[in-house]
Structure formats: C-alpha cells, structure tokens
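Duplicate of #3305? Posting structure anyway:
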C-alpha cells in the first residue's frame, strides 16, 4: 500500500465534494473556508432548534417533535416549562421541564468515553434534579440520557466504564451501574436527520429556518456519502494481509506521535508562579489544560485551555450562578486580553480576544507541535495572569462563594 497514493485519492474526493455552486451548502462552506464545525458547535446548533425561546420563531414546535420521537408523553406539553442549557457542568445539552430531565451526550466527532462520565451526568442533572428520588431518576418517562454519535464512523453505544458509579459516590445510596432503560442511543445520520426532516416539514417553504434545517440535513448526508467513498478506497488498498498489517502499524505510530506531541505541549505549559498556582492537563482528557490557585481542585476557578470550547477561557463550576456579580472585577483584571461571554447559563465567563485558539480535537495535536504562535500566546497569557495577585484574590473569593 502506497500511503501517498492513498492520501491523494482521499484529497481528490475532498475536492470533488467541494465543487459545484449548485450544491452549495452553508455548513460545508463555513467548514471549508473558516473553521471546522466541532462537537460543541453541533451541540449549539441542536440546542438552538430545541430551545423554545430562541430566534427561530417556532416556539416549542421543534422541541415537541423531539420529545415525541423520544416517546415522551406530549399530551400536556407546555413550552413555557422547558429550559435548554448548553455546556452546563460539562453536559453538552440539557433539557429540563418541571418534571423531566434529559441529558444529551454529543459524540459527533467520536470523542472517547470518559470513566464514569454518563454516571456523573446522571447524578448531577437527573438524580439531583429529582431530589434523589430513585424511582423517578430511573424512569425513562421522567429521565433520559440521549447518547449521540454520528452514526457512520462512530456508530456505537456507550462503553460499560462510562456507566459505572464513581468511587466517590456511596454504594449504599447509588446503584453500581446506570439503568440501561433510561439510555437512548441515536445517531446524526438516522434519528437526528429524521427529526430535522419533521422540523423542516412543519414550516412553510418561504421560512428561512427551513433553508437552515435542510442545509444541516444535507451537510450530514454529504458527510456520510464522502465517508463511504473513503471506506471504498481503503478496501481497495487493503487487499493483502501485509497491507493490513502495514496500515495498523502506521495507525499505531500515528497515535504514538499524537501522544508525544500532547506530552511535549504539556511540558511547555508549566506554571512559572508555582507559589500561588498549579497547572496541568486533566488525566481523563488529553485536551483539557487548567491553571488554578494552590489548594483548589478541578471544579474551582481556573484559566482553562479547552480547544473545542472557547479555546483559552476563564471557567468555574456553577459559575453561571454568580458570574454577573463579579463581572466588573473580571473585566478590570482580564479585560486587556479577554472578552465577556454573554451567556447567562454558561460556566465560561471570558474568552481570549481575537484568536482564542479554538480548534477541533482532530486538528489539535498537529497545532500543538506546529503552531508556534499558539504555544507562545498561551505562555504569555498564563505567565501574565498567574503572576497577578488580583487574579489570586478573585479566584479565592469565588471559590468560597456558596453559589446559591
């Protein structure tokens, strides 16, 4: 198997899919010309359509269709009861009414299942929501986790370890594993596409939102077609066991190279002011770098580099409850380099101005190794703000704030 020949054939398919103005697609245009539509951006697109308060002008119509497809009872559906959150406590999308809580775990880019991830989301967004009423928390009519891979490359169910109880939770109070009854696996290329089609069919031809939805449907359809073409080429290049072994060796070396680049980047990001700050990568995620004050933990205030979500930002768990109270202080301290995030439901408070280095996880290891501006800018920001005593005091104050 000739790697160069394989890459050239892949590139040919990519160029063919970009040709032809008559097949113009808004989402493909954005991805080709500006930035990749990351997992987080897909979450925001879905949340936009699901939120009755959003500017699509359809109220709760799309949400009602979504709930109906999930087989919830919509007889007494009241859109005013529903709230939609994006990236609240790291949950991609959270839908809640007075009596129902639905977690949507978006895996459109095939991100790995973290240990106990779904269990932790169930605890914080479902079990606690129902005031620890186990019967409600395990009843699919009131509680649901929608697991959402793309359906082509990543058509899989959640792994067992992500459904297991974390060690810090009591075995007397919590079950060993999540109840499978409340987990629903959908995919973008099937169930989401079907729901989007229902949404588009429910509005008039002249409505611009119909054009938006149909473009999004086409985006996923073209992605599937393109991936199918890639698969056919791969099969052609893997006709012998030697070619198969060679490709596996290349894949293994590629993974090793990615890991090495991530490790090298982590070494570059060490905190210079170790008297007041710590800085490291979160073990469960190769792309989650945090800098917090000494004595704090992973859920406290920090400068965060999470490339698929705002890039370099300022974050804290449950910060959405109090961030407006500290807005003036944030802007006085960080305003030279950071801008305020106008989302009252987000735990992200500010992100870096201009180029915030928001990348898709697929591109990230390459950026770590080759983008010298990325490393230089992050080091400048971290050095500047971890040596600012006002940052230390502000973070300390917010960490002890009860956030009620």
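Output from current build:
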């Amino acid at each position: 198997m000739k790697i160069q020949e394989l890459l050239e054939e892949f590139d040919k398919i990519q160029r063919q899919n970009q040709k032809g103005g008559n097949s113009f697609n808004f989402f493909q245009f954005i991805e080709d010309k500006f930035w990749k539509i990351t997992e987080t951006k897909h979450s925001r697109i879905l949340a936009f359509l699901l939120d009755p308060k959003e500017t699509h002008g359809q109220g709760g119509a799309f949400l009602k269709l979504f709930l109906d497809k999930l087989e919830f009872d919509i007889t007494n559906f009241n859109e005013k009861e529903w709230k939609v959150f994006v990236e609240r406590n790291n949950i991609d999308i959270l839908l809640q009414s007075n009596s129902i809580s639905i977690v949507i775990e978006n895996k459109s880019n095939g991100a790995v299942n973290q240990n106990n991830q779904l269990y932790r989301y169930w605890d914080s967004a479902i079990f606690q929501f129902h005031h620890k009423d186990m019967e409600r928390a395990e009843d699919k009519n009131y509680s649901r986790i929608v697991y959402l891979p793309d359906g082509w490359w990543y058509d899989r169910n959640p792994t067992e370890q992500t459904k297991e109880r974390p060690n810090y939770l009591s075995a007397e109070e919590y079950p060993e594993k999540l109840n499978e009854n409340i987990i629903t696996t959908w995919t973008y290329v099937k169930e989401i596409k079907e729901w989007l089609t229902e949404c588009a069919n429910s509005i008039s031809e002249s409505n611009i939102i119909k054009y938006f939805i149909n473009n999004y449907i086409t985006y996923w359809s073209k992605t599937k077609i393109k991936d199918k073409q890639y698969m056919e080429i791969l099969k052609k290049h893997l006709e012998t066991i030697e070619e198969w072994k060679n490709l596996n060796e290349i894949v293994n070396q590629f993974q090793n190279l990615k890991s090495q680049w991530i490790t090298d980047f982590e070494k570059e990001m060490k905190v210079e002011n170790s008297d007041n700050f710590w800085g490291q990568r979160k073990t469960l995620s190769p792309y989650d770098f945090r800098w917090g004050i000494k004595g704090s933990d992973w859920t406290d205030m920090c400068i965060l580099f999470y490339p698929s979500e705002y890039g370099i930002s300022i974050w804290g768990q449950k910060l959405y409850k109090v961030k407006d109270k500290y807005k003036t202080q944030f802007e006085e301290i960080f305003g030279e380099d950071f801008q305020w995030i106008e989302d009252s439901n987000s735990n992200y408070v500010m992100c870096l101005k201009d180029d915030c280095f928001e990348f898709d996880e697929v591109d990230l290891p390459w950026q770590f190794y080759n983008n010298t501006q990325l490393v230089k800018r992050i080091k400048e920001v971290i050095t500047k703000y971890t040596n600012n005593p006002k940052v230390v005091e502000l973070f300390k104050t917010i960490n002890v704030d009860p956030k009620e």
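Confirmed duplicate; merging threads. Residues 258-400 form one domain. The chain has three domains: 3-22+225-237, 26-220, 258-400.
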